[in-house]
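Ticket #4471: structure output looks truncated?

Reporter: J.K.
Steps to reproduce: submitted the chain below (395 residues) through the standard prediction queue, then opened the result file.
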Amino acid sequence: MMDEFIREKQPDILMLSQEQYEKYAAEGRIVSLESFVTRDKFDLEGMIPGVVDLLREKGGGELYGLSPTFTSRAIYYNKDLFDRFGIEYPTDRMSWEDLFNLAARFPTDGSDEDRIYGLSIGTTDLHQIGQQIGGTMGLRLVNPADKRVSLDTDSWVRAYEIALNAIRSGTLYQEDYSDFPSGMSYQDFLLRDPFIAGKVAMSLNHSYLLEQIREAANSSPDRAVKNWDIVTLPVDPANPEFSYEFSLGNIYAINAESPNREAAWEFIRYIHSDDYARVKSKSFNGQFPIRTKYIEDKEGRNLSAFYALKPSGHTLYDGIADLPGNFYMQYFTIGTEEMQAVLNEEKTVREALASMQTRLQAALDEELAKQKNESGADSNQDPAGAADEGASAAE
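Returned output as attached by the reporter:
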């Protein structure tokens, strides 16, 4: 639909996802910005480390677009809880094992109402945690070249075993999304977050939590977390400088068919300028400006944790966009079933992953064959019938 809209309306500027940006650049449908950047001496150095490199990589070696904002995640930690139990603070670039081992140093006794949990990562689901760890390790679900599922490997076994050990340690906070009373005030909603309420020592969370902590501190100063800071997400020890969870906002690019390239560049240059970043930084909405000098905390907290790691050009889901639309749902359903068998001690992690791979590959092959048959049927359709259908659609 977007391709059709662009062909019909021919807008000067396109707002693209990273996948669209890569595709449009390869197809010659957007304009290289290199000559504009060089001519106007446009400052790229003040941007988040690695972003321009990533965009050039996705552009086949040239810069075809820029994004004024980004989002990321980090590990928030409650200094008062660490001090109370005499545990050293977390640090940047920990591995997942380091993070879970640190969380496990907090006591696991006491009732759910009274106890302190070491860590909240938004889920205690084995399949979801295994995915996160595998993504950090740079693993993929499918080889895009031959459409083969790749889960029965030593690396994937390692990822899920780390997740399993963390769950069995009893240190992960169990999220409860079922009990939201009607008429709940926003203040009470904020305090339901276990980190804000002081129930967890660490929380792996998005940047929007920053604003919620500040709002809770203003509305409930005696109940909300006070003494806290941030460190980077866990990393792959083999690639400790990269994050697999860095997300750019819309990427702005110039339509190759635009007759107004200079005006389009002026617009793109402005929304990526120092002045624009300075103004936008005053109204934080969970997205950070791409220029680092305007990412700061008045209390001196380590907000660089959100951008200290360079964005990786690869994700766990590379190649999934080219697969049948229901593949991810099948992956989620089958993976959840197989990992439940692990939790029930009916299968080992390796056995579950081998079964996942077999079942997913069979489902994927079936869907790909169905698509191929449908495509063949369309190509063999009676030309006159096709013309009649086309006329009816046009009417």
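Triage note (M.O.): checked the attachment and the full token line is present. Residues 211 and 286 are 8 Å apart (CA to CA).
Status: closed, working as intended.
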